[in-house]
Amino acid sequence: MKKERLDKLLSNMGTGSRTQVKDMIKSGFVTVNGVLATSPEAKVVPGVDRVCLKGREIKYREFIYLMLNKPQGMVSSTDDPRESVVIELLDDYWKGFRPFPVGRLDKDTEGLLLITNDGQLAHLLLSPRKGVDKTYYAEIDGVVLPEHIESFRKGVQLEDGYLTLPAELEIERSELISTVQVTIQEGKYHQVKRMFAAHGLRVVYLKRIRMGPLVLDNQLGEGEYRELTDNEIGVLKREVGMV
Ligand code: URA
User: Fold this and answer.
1) In angstroms, rounded to a whole number, what is the distance separating the alpha carbons of residues 44 and 58?
2) pLDDT class for 96, splitting at 50, 70, 90?
3) Contact between 214 and 236 (Cβ < 8 Å)
4) In the chain, where are the structural domains located?
5) 3-state secondary structure at position 110
6) CA distances from 237 to 4, 231, 233, 242 (A)
7) CA–CA gap between residue 162 and residue 181 (Å, rounded)
8) Among 140, 190, 208, which residue has the most ligand 1 atoms within 8 Å of its CB, making it the best to mutate?
9) How far apart are CA 107 and CA 86, in angstroms?
C-alpha cells in the first residue's frame, strides 16, 4: 500500500497549508491510530491509518467529482498565463485535490463541465472509442431547416475536409435566430460551430447540457458547481465500463 507523508495528506484533505499543518502537528493536535504524531514526515497509509486533527477524524478521499456550470469568458484548463481558468472558481479545499476539467469547452461556451482528479474516468469519457454523447443547446443566426437534420445525420464535412460522425440535430425553433439541440460523440476543436458553419450558419450561443448520462443541474447558476451524487458517479462509470 502506498504511503504518504502525514503533513502532505492532511494538507491535501484541505486542513491547511503545508506550513500550517506542520505547526499543528508540532503543537500536538494530530494523532495517528490514537498515538500522538510528532513528525510531519511520518508516513501514513491513506485510507487505512486513522488520522485525527484535534480529535476529529480526517476522512481520506482520493477522487473528487464536480459538476460545473461553466460561464462564458473562462478557458477550460488548470492554468493559463493570460486567461481566467475554470479551476479558479473552486474553493481551496477542492483545488487541493489537483482537479482538472474533462475535455474543453470554448471560452464563449457555457454549461456542463465535469471537473475531477480521476484520470482514468476522464480518459475513458474522452476516448473516441467510447463515443460518449454530448448534447448542446445552441442558438443559430439563420434558419435551421429539416434538410440540416438529414445532413447532420449523415455526418458533416468540415472546412478542412474532415467528415464528422453522424450527429443528431433537433430543431426547437426555426426562425431568423433558430434554437436547436445537437448531440455529437466526438470533441473536435469548435466542432458544433464548424458543423453549422459548413452550412453557412453561425452559432451565436452554445451551452452544453448533457454528457453521457450526466445532465446539467438547472439549479446551478453560471460559475456554480456541486459534487456529483454517488448515483451520478456510478452511472458515469458504468457508461464507460469502469464498473
Ligand atoms: N463545439 C464547439 O464548437 N464549441 C464547444 O465549446 C463545444 C463543442
Assistant:
1) 13
2) confident
3) yes
4) 4-57, 65-128+219-239, 134-211
5) strand
6) 27, 10, 6, 5
7) 22
8) 190
9) 10
**Would you say 158 and 169 are in contact if contact means Cβ atoms under 8 Å apart?**
no
Residue range 4-57 in CATH 3.40.50.150:
no
DSSP 160-208: TSPBPPP-EEEEEE-SSEEEEEEEES---TTHHHHHHHTTT-EEEEEEE
Q: How far is the CA of 136 from the centre of ligand 1 (A)?
A: 8
Q: Does domain 65-128+219-239 have CATH number 3.30.70.580?
A: yes
Cα–Cα dist 182/170, whole Å: 6
pLDDT, tens digit, 9 for 90 and up, residues 142-182: 999 999 999 999 999 999 999 999 999 999 999 999 999 99
Q: pTM of the prediction?
A: 0.92
Identical fold, 4-57 and 134-211: no
Cell matching residue 132? 460518449
Ligand 1 pocket residue status of 140, Cβ below 6 Å = no
- Whose CA is closest to 69, among 29, 35, 109, 27? 109
Protein residue with least CA distance to atom 7, ligand 1: 105
Q: What is the CATH number of domain 134-211?
A: 3.30.70.1560
The ligand 1 atom nearest the CA atom of 203: 3
